[in-house]
Amino acid sequence: MKKTDEIDKYYYFFPQTVAFIGVGTNIMPAAWHTPISAQPPLYGILIAPKRYTFDLLQKESGFTVNFLEHNKAPASAQTGSISGRDIDKLEKFNIEYSKAEKVNGPILASSYAAYECEKHTVAEYGDHHLFIGQIILIHYREGILTIDKLVNEKNVAPMLYFGKDRYITTDPNSLAIHKRK
Ligand SMILES: Cc1cc2nc3c(=O)[nH]c(=O)nc-3n(C[C@H](O)[C@H](O)[C@H](O)COP(=O)(O)O)c2cc1C
Q1: Residue nearest to atom 20 of ligand 1 (CA)
Q2: Could you tell me the distance, in angstroms and rounded to a whole number, from the CA of residue 30 to the centre of ligand 1?
Q3: Where would you tag: which of 34, 53, 93, 176 has the fewest CB atoms within 10 A of its CB?
Q4: What is the average pLDDT score of the chain?
């Protein structure tokens, strides 16, 4: 193994699912996001203070987290390279959505799953803030789940970010099941 003390880009954890964070009528793609707790169901997103989304998150009491398929990667490049301060991205890029039921944010029509999150806590960590939301409603596309309520690998090709504008997805034929003892 080689070693490096250049830790500025520790992107060895990629690929990561792209999550489109929605607040008000704005969206931005985020690759830094994580489950925090199962009970209560908490989800964390890491947002840099310079983002318009950051300003909106300070003001609003909730946000949405939308998961799209790999074929929508162009929407990630589009909405991730311009700020909602300057344009209405949903309108400009013709992104269909409906209003979330319980929070002020968009549910993207092409998402295979989307969470409505109520803001729970916020904490600053270096150059990002961790916004933790409690998931209060889940939208999902009919027919995509296995009997165990997992996303069926045959029905969804998730949008995964591999760093530096590279997107990849899963190969359903690679599925391996190894039971825990
Ligand atoms: C694939 C991808 C992943 C990104 N992940 C994050 C992230 O996790 N956190 C973040 O603050 N910015 C992230 N960005 C950058 C923002 O999406 C980008 O700056 C966006 O234009 C901000 O929009 P806004 O100003 O309307 O909030 C990412 C961009 C791309 C393309």
Answers
A1: 80
A2: 5
A3: 176
A4: 98
The pLDDT tens digits of the residues spanning 33-55 come to 999 999 999 999 999 999 999 99
Ligand 1 atom, smallest distance to 77 CA: 31
Helix or strand (DSSP H, E) at 56:
helix 52-59
Strand blocks (E) in the chain: 16-17, 19-23, 26-30, 33-37, 42-47, 62-67, 97-99, 106-108, 113-125, 128-140, 160-161, 167-168
pLDDT of residue 66: 99
Tokens coding 8: 């500025």
- 51 CB less than 6 Å from ligand 1? yes
In a domain, 176, yes or no: no
| Structural domains in the chain (count) | 1
Say what the pTM is. 0.98
Please identify, by atom number, the ligand 1 atom nearest to the C-alpha of residue 76.
31
- CA 56, chain centre distance (Å): 16
